[in-house]
């Protein structure tokens, strides 16, 4: 179970899945033009809220844990993942392979 600043998320990703909350889309361009909601690009950065147990090694039966932890800020693939809504909040469930980098 992961904790957000506003509410608790009662969702546990399975295997190599990760629950993230995308950063807010920018509403203004660098030149100062305000964008309508429909033209905002989805951000490629997010905060990790929950992490699955890792991948299962079918030979040994052991789990290989993920290198990603709750609270990490990540850069993710633009079109990866499945969007879900829980209690009015939007989240994204992605595969660990959709994570491109961890922001330090």
CATH architecture: Roll
- Could you tell me the number of beta strands? 10
Q: Globular, elongated, flat, extended or rod-shaped: what is the shape?
A: elongated
Alpha plus pi helix count: 0
Main β-sheet, spatial strand arrangement? 8-9-3-4-7-10
Could you describe the 3D structure shown?
The chain has 104 residues and is mainly beta. It has one domain: GroES chaperonin (10 Kd Chaperonin, Protein Cpn10, Chain O, Roll), CATH 2.30.33. Helix content is 0%, strand content 40%. It is built from no helices and ten strands. The strands form three sheets. It has a six-stranded antiparallel β-sheet, with no helix packed on it. A hairpin with a 2-residue loop joins strand 8 and strand 9. The two termini are 23 Å apart. The N terminus is likely disordered.
What keyword list fits this structure?
104 residues; mainly beta; 10 Kd Chaperonin, Protein Cpn10, Chain O; six-stranded antiparallel beta sheet; two-stranded antiparallel ribbon; elongated
């Amino acid at each position: 179970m992961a904790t957000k600043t506003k509410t608790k998320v009662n969702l546990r990703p399975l295997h190599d899945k990760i629950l993230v909350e995308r950063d807010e889309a920018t509403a203004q361009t660098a030149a100062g033009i305000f964008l309508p909601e429909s033209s905002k690009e989805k951000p490629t950065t997010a905060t990790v809220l929950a992490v699955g147990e890792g991948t299962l090694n079918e030979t040994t039966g052991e789990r290989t844990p993920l290198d990603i932890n709750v609270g990490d800020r990540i850069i993710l693939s633009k079109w990866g993942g499945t969007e879900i809504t829980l209690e009015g909040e939007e989240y994204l469930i992605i595969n660990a392979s959709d994570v491109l980098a961890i922001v330090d």
